[in-house]
Amino acid sequence: MQLTVLGCAGSAPGPDLPTSGYLVEAGGARIVLELGSGVFGPLTRLCDPFDLDAVLLSHLHLDHCADFGSLTVYRREHPEPPYDVRARRLPVFAPAHAPSRLANAHAASRAELATTDLTDTFDFVPLVPGHYAVGPVDVEVAAMRHICEAYGFRISHGGVSLVFTGDTVPCPELVRLAEGADLLLADSAWRAQAGRANYLHMSGREAGEVARSAGVGRLVLTHVLPWSDRDGVLRDAAEAFPGPVTLATPGATYAV
Known about the structure:
256 residues; alpha/beta; Metallo-beta-lactamase, Chain A; seven-stranded mixed sheet
């Protein structure tokens, strides 16, 4: 299994730093995990978007799904698609309200929205806790604790597993999902701070504590806010987790 970081900024992009987006390749399957602002371009450097096998969206804040509009345009408007995109719709595993939410983002007017139905191009699969198959890859889904409906994913193939937290605060559901994972890709928005809002994000220290509790092999910190202290987030996580810890950067690859 290989993980490639397309973007990793939290909440808003930074200079040359797109928001959340990752390409996971395993067993011949290509899965895009999140499609935040600015990640579609880097994706096209790595593979033809027509070759994707699935899209996973943990939740529908724009820093995790804004470039779904770019994928929509590409699949709908490309003059020479390699196959009939309406006969071979791309599976999109996302919260149940994704079809209407993403159609609203795609349409330019109320009149256009009335005729915008993305289900002609995408096969939307509403997420609930449980297991899903993408070719030979198993995707386990667990509900996380964020300010909206949000999920974490455990992607497994060939005896290895990668866990992505999505956006969440520490919770037992996350520790259970991540237990024994080879790599934990963890929301680490900021340094620990007094009085921060509940149900938003983890700090670097909290991500490290979750990684330690779950006994993961490696911790990769992502979704650091552009105005946060990245080096401080890394130090905090490394103090809490005894294993290898790195900061995600665009273009970085991890063999799992």
